[in-house]
Amino acid sequence: MTKVSTHFLYPSALFVSAKPCLISTILGSCISVCIYDKELNYGGMCHYMLPYWNGEGLASPKYGNIAIEKLLEKIYSYGSKKQDVVAKVFGGGEVIDFSHPQFHIGKRNINLAFEILNEKKIPILSSSVGGKLGRKLIFCTYTGNVKQKYVQRQVNNSHFSEVSTR
User: Fold this and answer.
1) What is the pLDDT of residues 71-130, one digit of tens each?
2) Which residue ranges make up each domain of the chain?
3) CATH class given for the domain over 5-151
4) What secondary structure does DSSP assign to 114-161, as a single string?
5) 87 and 124 Cβ atoms separated by less than 8 Å
6) What is the DSSP string of the chain?
7) For residues 115 and 107, what is the distance between their CA atoms, to the nearest angstrom?
8) Which of 38, 80, 139, 148 counts the most CB atoms within 10 A of its CB?
């Protein structure tokens, strides 16, 4: 029996495994794109926080336009062919209420993922995006299956205590 490893994917990161692996992550307004090679049976995931890198500082996978590009580069470097890869997209929840549309990061992150994958002609097999809840994901790199659990919003101030300003 093949040993299946696990990997927790933090925000601003990506991970690809040619060996069986369960990649997990937790999303709010962030997006995870899961890429799976249906011929070689392996895949990877990115977890980005903001849609576009502005060109300043490092071109980090914190930004969707960088993260998706780097994820595809890594998948292709493992031997995948463009016609064999498919995608699944998750996240982009508006977990914090803002009235100004500039702050609707979840929606902007969703739009970017679909825009880039469509532009690159990567089929999107499924997605679970938007809404008001976060998500916990587990991506199985050797089957392409994704399990998702919604994370309920909680407002609990019972852990806070008054701080004296004197």
Assistant:
1) 999 999 999 999 999 999 999 998 766 555 556 899 999 999 999 999 999 999 999 999
2) 5-151
3) alpha beta
4) HHHHHHTT--EEEEEE-SS-EEEEEEETTT--EEEEEE------TT--
5) yes
6) -PPPEEEE--TTEEEEESS-EEEEEEESS-EEEEEEETTTTEEEEEEESBS---SSS---TTBHHHHHHHHHHHHHHTT--GGGEEEEEEE----S--SSGGG-HHHHHHHHHHHHHHHTT--EEEEEE-SS-EEEEEEETTT--EEEEEE------TT-------
7) 12
8) 139
Instruction: List the structure tokens of 111.
Output: 């739009």
Residue 120's nearest CA partner among 35, 54, 53, 58 is 35
Biggest CA pair distance of the chain: 66
Amino acid, single-letter form, for residue 159:
H
CA 132 vs CA 19, 55, 59, 102, 153: distances in Å? 34, 30, 29, 17, 8
